Amino acid sequence: MLKVWFFFALAFLASSLSSAHAKEALDLVIIETLPVPIVAESRGEFEKELIRIMPEHDINITTYNAEGSEIRAKEILDELAQESKPDLIVSVATLATRALNAAEEFFETPKLFMVVSAPVEEGIVPAIGAVSKRNMTGESHVLDAKVKLDMLDGVLRASNPETPFTIGLVHSTYPSSSNLVNQLLALDSEYENINLVAVSTPYLEGDDGLVEMTDSIVASLDQKSAELDGYWLSSGPLAEAKGLVKKVNEKTGLLPLFAESISSVKKGALIGVVSEPASIGKSAARKAKLILQRKSARDIPVGKMDTYTVAVNVTTAIKLQLPIPSSYLKLSKEHVYQ
C-alpha cells in the first residue's frame, strides 16, 4: 500500500512541476504590406528577437502578405475579425498599417507598426512623441528630411559649386514615398546648393507593378537627364526595385546623389542613410515585449529610430568630383563602397 501511495505522490509531483514550467502561449498576427527586402528582413529580425527575449513564452506567429494592396490588407483584417483576437497585431510598412489603424474591429486590440516613415501624416499620432488613442504604437524608421538635406549639402558645399545641383526626387505615389518627397520639397529653398525637382510615377501593386514603375521612372529620368545632375531615391517600393540604379545609369548616365537604402549605395549612390532591418526588427521586438507583458500600447509614445547606418560610395564621389568629408567616412565605417 505504501508503494502505491509513493507512486501516486511522485506522479502528482511530476505533474505539478510540469505545469509550473509550462510556457504561456501568445498569439501574434503579422500583416506585411508586400515582401520587398526591407519589409521581409525587418519582419524576420522581429520574430527572431522576440522569441529570443521572451524564452518563457510559446509565441505563435501567423504572417499575412497584403500583396502591396491596402484593399487586400482590409480583407485580411475582415477575415481575422471572425476569429478570436490575437494578443498583438503587427503591421509592417504603410498600407498594412493604414488599414490596421482604421479597423474598428481591432480598436481595443494591441497594435504595433514598423517600417512606416510618416506616422504623423498617416494620422496615427498628432506628433512624434505622442501616444495613439487607438491602442497602437511603433517607430518611424527614417531620418528627418532636414538632417538628410544637411548631409547632402555638406558634400556638395565642399566642392564649391558655381550653380546648384539639380536633383530629381524619384518616387511613386506610394504614401510614405510621397510624404517624404513633400517634406524635402518644403525645405528646398533653404539650400543654395540644391535644386529639387519631383520625378513621380503612379504606384502600382504587385511584382508586375514594380517592373512597370521602374520602367516609367527610367523613361522620365531619360527625358529630364539634360537638366539633372543626379537623383534622390526616396524610400518606398521603388527603393527596393531590383536593377533600378543600373537601368537608370545605363540609359541616362545619372547616379543617385542620395538613397535611402544601403544596397543602392553599393550599386552607385553617392551617400545613403537608413535604419537597417536588424535594428528595425529588434527595436520593434522590445516594444512588443512590453505590450505582451500587459503594458498598454496607448502608453507607449510613437517615436523615431535612434540607430542609423551611413554609407558612401567613393567611386561615385570621384566620378562626380565631390569630396567626401572625413566625418562622413568615419560615420560610414564598414559601409564605404567603391
Automatic annotation (TrEMBL):
Gene3D superfamilies (UniProt xref): 3.40.50.2300
The UniProt record lists the keyword Signal: yes
Assigned keywords, A-Z: Signal
Pfam families: ABC_sub_bind (PF04392)
InterPro entries, sorted: ABC_transpt-TYRBP-like
Signal sequence extent: 1-22
Keyword Signal part of the UniProt annotation: yes
Protein known as: ABC-type uncharacterized transport system, periplasmic component
